[in-house]
Amino acid sequence: MKLSDARSYAVLPLRTREKILGVIVMQSQEPQNFDSNTLTTLQIMTDHIATQLDNAQLFAERENALEAERACPNPRWI
After folding, report:
1. What is the pTM of this model?
2. Does residue 78 lie within any of the structural domains?
3. How many CB atoms lie within 10 A of CB 47?
């Protein structure tokens, strides 16, 4: 579907810990296709996605810190 064919949109933030990581944009050819129940379900899904993205980022940061610590010849003296 081309953007010009869309009749309704839903823009859902990927938010976690008071920050927005991005957005997910949904579109439909049907006008007013996203009712409140659908939007609530989609927001719950995007909240879970954002949490997983945030967890992956925290895990990567932790791994990088551990690698840096392992690279130090004597980390107890730092």
Report:
1. 0.71
2. no
3. 15
